[in-house]
Structure formats: structure tokens, C-alpha cells
Amino acid sequence: MQMIPLGPSGLMVSRIGLGCEVLGGADWGPVDADLALRAVPASLEHGINLFETADVYGLGRSEELLSIALGSYRNRVAIASKFGLRGELIPGETRARITRDCSARWVMAAVEQSLRRLKLESIPIYIVHWPDPATPIAETIAALDGCRRAGKIRCIGVSNFSASEIREAHQVTALDVVEVPYSLLDRRCETEILPLCQELNIRVLAYGPLGQGLLTGKYGPAHQFESNDRRGRLPQFRGDLFPENFQIVHRLHEIGLQYEISPSQLAIRWVLDHPGVSAVIVGAKSPGHVKENAGALGFTLASSDYHYLANGQRGPAASEQQSSYASSIT
Ligand SMILES: NC(=O)c1ccc[n+]([C@@H]2O[C@H](COP(=O)([O-])OP(=O)(O)OC[C@H]3O[C@@H](n4cnc5c(N)ncnc54)[C@H](OP(=O)(O)O)[C@@H]3O)[C@@H](O)[C@H]2O)c1
Q1: Which atom of ligand 1 is the closest one to the Cα of 288?
Q2: How many domains does the chain have?
Q3: Domain limits at 57?
């Protein structure tokens, strides 16, 4: 596993991280809870030490189960948790009602609750889940800085922030991490956010590299998701976008055959090979998923194939030229 340092404390994290949202059990379709839990020790076996969760996933359940599944390893790995979405169960409603709250007061309460659920004395990476329009960014980041000084967290991050919001937050105190959605299906961060983070020397964690499963190649246009699976409501799975998205899936199959790897491994590798990406956060529902996804680092992707996956055209570089970034990291 390739490792990278993160933040001034020198925390080392694996370039592939496990996304633990499914441990919360909500809105992700059928999940075998036992298999999903076993993905955690399987990750350790494959050298993964970055585990990403949030207090809102299953209203705390994901944090609790992650801590149980890690056992004594919880103090030795890099857990990243997020706050700022408050979930509330409303009688008669099937899904929790979510409101944004990044006020200083809630930062203090949320960090204590996550520490308790995770059974930690300090959270290695603590991330604002989404910006809260009702709270000044400076208030949130100053409160996080206070938590860091008090030793309750080690690295500060923001997620789903625009480039200007990242810049504003970074002026309050240096951000260690920015988390963004990034995959062959969602490349919005390429224009502003990735270059900005490179300029400001902020590590980027890219979530959803498999396009919520679409890029694994196992879902066709006729697939019907269950009502408890949000993918039935996500735009990339909509019928009218399928033809375009399937061209990408087709290219993943085509190039994957050459390297004898799966579309999933190639989709993850494509994200990791962007020079602005430090690590990916991949969701997994079983040890088998983890094993396959960890294989994304087991080969070198030629530059021309990297461009072909992105654009359907061969890039300017010669096919034997290797994509540069991954090979320069130990
Ligand atoms: N910061 C944020 O706002 C934010 C937002 C969303 C997610 N996240 C984090 O990012 C993580 C990853 O995002 P995501 O789970 O939405 O998307 P993803 O990583 O693109 O897709 C994960 C899903 O793909 C399928 N899958 C994974 N590996 C596979 C394999 N090798 N073969 C076949 N299928 C495979 C599984 O679902 P199926 O088997 O059911 O297809 C899995 O749940 C989440 O767990 C969460 O921790 C953060």
C-alpha cells in the first residue's frame, strides 16, 4: 500500500481509504451487515489505514460499528469523521430529517459525541461535512482550531466546499484536508478545486471514485434499485444519462482487459493518478470488494490510456509513457 503524510503532525495515511457510510445501514440498498463489517479488518489486511465516516451516517451507528470492528487498532489507524449535518428521526417518516449546523456550539458538542462513539481521545482527521450557509466559515474553522489545540482532533478538513469557501477557510487556519467527489463521472473539481489545493498545499481526499457503483460495470440501464437505495434517485443512474455514462464503462472494460484488471480497479486508479489527489475514499460492502479495490495500486496506467478513459481520445503522450504521480509516491 502506498502511504502519504497528511498535516503537520506527520500522520501517514494509505492512498486507498475505506468509506464507511454503509455501516450506518441507511439508504444504501441491501447491505449484509456482517459482510460490511468484515470489510474493516479486511482493509487492515490489505494495508489500508484510512477509514472515513460521519456522525450522520446511521445517526452515529457507522462511527460506533467502525470502532468496534477496528478494536484496539482504532488508536493506530487514521479515522476521518465528519460533522455538520444533524439528523433527526421524525415519527412516521422513513428517512431522518437532516439540517446543517456548523456553529461553534455544535462543533464542540459534535466532537465530544464522535469521540465517545469512536472510543478515541483524539480524532485523527475531523472534517466539515457540508458548508452551513447560516454560520460564518470563520466561526466554524476557529472552533475546529480550538479543538485541535485542545488535542481533541489532529487534522482539520472541509468537504463539499467551493473553491472560494476553501480559500476563506484556509485563511482562518491552514487546512490539512479537502474532501471532494471525484470520478470519471463527476469531474467538477478539476477546474478550480484541485489546482487550488495544489497551490495551497492541501491534501485532497476524493470520494465516490466508483460513481456509487456505476463504474464497476455491474449496473445496466434497466436496473431497478430498491426504494431504500438512494441510487434510484441519483442523476448518474437516470435513463437519459446512461448512454453517455456507459461509454465510460465500456472504455473501462476495454482498457481493463489489456491490463487484466477489473473496471473498478481501473476507475479507482484513474482518480489516484490525478496529481492533485492524495487518496481515494471507496465504499465497500464486503471483504471481496476491499480486496479487489486495493488492487488498484498494483499496476501502472499508461498516460495514453489515462487520457483515453477521460476523453475517449488518445492523449498527446506516447503510450509507453507512464502516468507520473503514483510512481513517485512511496
Ligand atoms: N464527504 C461527503 O459528503 C461524502 C459523500 C458521499 C460519500 N462519502 C464517503 O465516500 C465513501 C464512498 O462513496 P460511495 O460509497 O458513495 O461511492 P463509491 O465508492 O463510488 O461506490 C461504492 C459502492 O460501489 C460498490 N462496490 C465497491 N467496490 C466494488 C467492487 N470491487 N465490485 C463491485 N461493486 C463494488 C458497492 O455498492 P453495491 O455493491 O451496492 O453496488 C459500494 O457500496 C462513502 O462510503 C462515504 O464514506 C463522503
Answers
A1: 31
A2: 1
A3: 3-327
